[in-house]
């Protein structure tokens, strides 16, 4: 026995080791924190320094550019006010005299009445964002105005800088710089802009033109390409006013650029200057902390060993017996008042514990059973809940991991045409989670039934749940309002799992923006989103107990397995909703391989049963009316394929017809209804002698003749062709006949294709 005791580590030695480990870890953590903090401070200071210098240089260039152009515009305005001719010939004379590329006269109505650029004649300044800015000269709010160097409204490929000055007889004169004159006027300011400017102690500023040629550099490399300094800027991947790192003149540097007035302004700060203060601070802090931690280590160790460890060993000896089940053990350590009180408290606690254990065991079982009954009664449990409704079906189920849980679901009608339904998951489990669940469910329902908008329901509920939430519990929630007559579901997702849409035996997650969880932060905003259900669609909601179910090897059930299970034919209506939830639960049980359930599993399935307005004729014709949206395309092609198959159509002709129908239908879905709400009608007839298919596609959208657009020039290079028109061109090529007419407010496109001629055979 003595031999075994000698082999065990003493409390003193164990405490020494742990104290040493803690001191080392604390020292390393302190140094790591200091390093991160000082690095961030140095980087932030460097970023501010770079941004300040680029901004200052940019402002200097802009101020010089603005003043030059305004001065020219004032002189020209003065000439016009003094009676200089304002016809085209007179303006050209002024343009040549003052060496500017463009002069425009704008009347009191904002119309260009005279110009040196013929294409601008009679142009309404209100028609473009860039040109409309000058209308401030007509309402009296300004007498002069100058813009930055930018694309023009009339022709975005033309870059100009404009200034305007009010004329005494009304209207104003507008003078424009092109790139060449613009740079010629301000180059003298730009060249000296970086010469005497230092960024920090050793940093500097480089300025290049938009052709990447350096125009100002502390090291005198004007005329060379910016790349020779080591700086490479890709504007698509490198945003302005963001720090990037590269070697400049062979030295690692942090850089920042902005593009202004046709110039790239680059501020450069060497890395060694950025990290110098950080390294000095870390070195000083390291020496101080080593001394401090060493002194603390020695003091704590000797004090604890003397005052605590010895008595603690005696107390621990008695506690070991008690924890082993010997509740008759008495602790008797009386070296000081603290340990004397501790001994008395332990003995008193053990005595009381012996009395409570028996009573508590039976009481807990009764209370948990009651809590489970109360929680179950608070959730809808009668299915189908609305047996008189044929437009939708709904089913939900909750399986708790313990006697009670924190998940919940609910559904009800806040008004006659909307069904509210939700699912939520409270953090934690057991009685506290169940109590918080009851509160959250009541709060959400109260705000919904009083008629609040969906985002306001979540905002008000979040504020109410945050108030007095000392336990700091929170919940994720997904709540939707189904408009039963249209299938539109408006919803808010507060940190919950993505719902699954099941359409035509294919399941996929609904992509959405996720808001903050409820009861986390008071005053949080929540935003509404929507999804449109089609007749026959299922919307499946669940808590993370489904996808995070695990088995012995710690693998998770996962999203992919859930989508695979849901991509099946479950039928329709109430039984289909019930079958979906039952199938998922059975799949989880099989996957878990007997492992106990660690989290609540809650599911809610909604089936939407609206009308498709669908009609068809067997055999040699078919007709279909669908919503003009891309999701309806599969029904259109399905109907077309069936009629063509019944007519004995070849695979090649069917493929060509399908391509043509798809092109026309997608155009209607994308452009016919600007508000996104409309229908399309598709009619197919098989005609004899010769055997051909006639397809008519019509819509009540905006008038549009797809045949009016000229065919693309196939001899032209791809980069030079005008965008668009190629799809309609292919339709013309694969179909034998195609015609368009506008009749009774509808676009009607008719296509024909021979099914037994050369183009309709394999």
Concise overview:
With 762 residues, the protein is of the alpha+beta class. Strands 1, 2, 3, 4, 5 and 6 form a 6-stranded antiparallel β-sheet that branches. Strands 7, 8, 9, 10, 11 and 12 form a 6-stranded antiparallel β-sheet that branches. A 6-stranded antiparallel β-sheet has the order 23-24-25-26-28-27, covered by helices on one side.
Per-chain topology:
Layout: H1 2-7, H2 11-81, H3 88-98, E1 102-106, E2 112-115, H4 129-132, E3 144-146, E4 150-151, E5 159-166, E6 172-177, H5 179-193, E7 198-199, E8 203-209, E9 214-216, E10 244-248, E11 251-260, E12 263-270, H6 271-323, H7 337-378, E13 392-399, E14 407-415, E15 418-426, H8 430-449, H9 454-466, E16 475-483, E17 488-494, E18 500-503, E19 506-509, E20 529-532, E21 538-542, H10 544-547, H11 559-566, H12 573-592, E22 601-608, E23 614-615, E24 621-627, H13 633-646, H14 651-672, E25 679-687, E26 692-699, H15 726-734, E27 737-743, E28 746-754
Antiparallel strand pairs: 1-2, 1-6, 3-5, 4-5, 5-6, 7-8, 8-9, 8-12, 10-11, 11-12, 13-22, 14-15, 15-16, 16-17, 17-20, 18-19, 18-21, 21-22, 23-24, 24-25, 25-26, 26-28, 27-28
Could you please describe the fold and organization of this structure?
The protein has 762 residues and is an alpha+beta fold. The chain contains 15 helices and 28 strands. Helix 2 (11-81) crosses helix 5 and helix 2 (11-81) packs antiparallel against helix 6. The chain is flat and about 115 Å long. 30% of the residues are buried.
């Amino acid at each position: 026995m003595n031999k075994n005791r000698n082999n065990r580590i003493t409390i003193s030695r164990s405490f020494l080791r742990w104290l040493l480990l803690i001191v080392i870890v604390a020292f390393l953590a302190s140094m790591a924190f200091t390093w991160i903090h000082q690095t961030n401070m140095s980087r932030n200071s460097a970023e501010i320094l770079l941004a300040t210098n680029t901004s200052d240089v940019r402002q200097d260039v802009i101020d010089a550019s603005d003043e030059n152009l305004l001065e020219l515009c004032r002189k020209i305005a003065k000439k016009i006010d003094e009676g200089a001719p304002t016809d085209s010939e007179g303006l050209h004379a002024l343009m040549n005299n003052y060496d500017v590329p463009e002069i425009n006269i704008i009347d009191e109505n904002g119309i260009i009445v005279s110009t040196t650029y013929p294409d601008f004649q009679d142009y309404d300044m209100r028609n473009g964002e860039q040109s409309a800015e000058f209308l401030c000269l007509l309402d009296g709010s300004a007498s002069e105005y100058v813009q930055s160097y930018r694309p023009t409204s009339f022709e975005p490929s033309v870059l100009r800088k404009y200034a305007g000055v009010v004329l005494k007889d009304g209207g104003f004169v507008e003078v424009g710089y092109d790139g060449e004159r613009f740079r010629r006027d301000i180059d003298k300011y730009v060249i000296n802009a970086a010469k005497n400017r230092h960024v920090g102690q050793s940093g500097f500023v480089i300025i290049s033109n938009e052709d990447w040629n350096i125009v100002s550099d502390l090291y005198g490399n004007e005329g060379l390409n910016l790349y020779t300094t080591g700086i490479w800027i890709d504007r698509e991947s490198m945003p302005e006013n963001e720090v990037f790192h590269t070697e400049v003149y062979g030295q690692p540097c942090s850089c920042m650029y902005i593009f202004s007035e046709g110039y790239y302004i680059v501020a450069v700060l060497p890395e060694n200057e950025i990290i110098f203060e950080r390294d000095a601070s870390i070195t000083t802090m390291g020496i101080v902390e080593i001394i401090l931690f060493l002194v603390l280590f020695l003091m704590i160790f000797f004090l604890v060993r003397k005052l605590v460890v010895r008595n603690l060993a005696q107390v621990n000896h008695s506690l070991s017996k008690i924890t082993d089940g010997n509740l008759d053990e008495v602790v008797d350590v009386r070296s000081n008042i603290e340990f004397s009180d501790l001994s008395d408290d332990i003995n008193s606690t053990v005595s009381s514990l012996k009395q409570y254990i028996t009573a508590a065991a039976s009481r807990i079982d009764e209370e948990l059973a009651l809590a489970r009954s109360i929680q179950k009664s608070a959730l809808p449990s009668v299915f189908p809940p609305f047996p008189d409704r044929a437009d939708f079906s709904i089913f939900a189920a909750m399986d708790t991991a313990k006697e009670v849980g924190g998940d919940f679901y609910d559904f009800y009608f806040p008004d006659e045409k909307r069904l509210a339904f939700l699912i939520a998951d409270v953090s934690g489990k057991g009685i506290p989670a169940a109590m918080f669940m009851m509160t959250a469910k009541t709060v959400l329902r109260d705000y919904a039934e009083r008629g609040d908008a969906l985002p306001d329901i979540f905002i008000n509920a979040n504020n109410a749940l945050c108030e007095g939430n000392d336990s700091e519990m929170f919940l994720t929630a997904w709540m939707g309002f189904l408009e039963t007559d249209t299938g539109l579901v408006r919803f808010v997702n507060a940190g919950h799992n993505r719902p699954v849409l099941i359409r035509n035996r294919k399941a996929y997650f609904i992509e959405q923006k996720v808001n903050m969880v409820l009861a986390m932060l008071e005053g949080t905003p929540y935003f509404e989103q929507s999804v449109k259900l089609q007749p026959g669609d299922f919307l499946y909601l669940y808590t993370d107990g489904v996808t995070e179910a695990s088995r012995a090897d710690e693998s998770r059930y996962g999203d992919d397995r859930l989508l695979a299970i849901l991509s099946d034919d479950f039928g329709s209506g109430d039984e289909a909703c019930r079958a979906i939830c039952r199938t998922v639960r059975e799949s989880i049980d099989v996957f878990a391989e007997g492992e106990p359930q660690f989290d609540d599993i809650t599911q809610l399935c909604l089936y939407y049963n609206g009308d498709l307005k669908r009609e068809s004729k067997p055999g040699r014709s078919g007709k279909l009316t669908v919503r003009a949206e891309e999701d309806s395309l599969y029904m259109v092609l399905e109907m077309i394929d069936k009629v063509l198959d019944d007519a004995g159509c070849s695979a090649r002709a069917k493929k060509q017809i399908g391509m043509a129908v798809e092109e026309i239908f997608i155009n209607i879905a994308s452009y016919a209804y600007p508000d996104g709400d409309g229908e399309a009608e598709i009619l197919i007839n098989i005609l004899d002698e010769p055997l051909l298919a006639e397809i008519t596609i019509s819509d009540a959208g905006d008038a549009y003749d797809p045949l009016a657009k000229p065919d693309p020039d196939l001899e032209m290079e791809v980069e030079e062709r005008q965008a668009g028109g190629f799809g309609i061109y292919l339709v013309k090529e694969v179909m034998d006949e195609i015609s368009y007419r506008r009749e009774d407010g509808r676009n009607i496109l008719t296509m024909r294709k021979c099914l037994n001629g050369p183009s309709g055979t394999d």
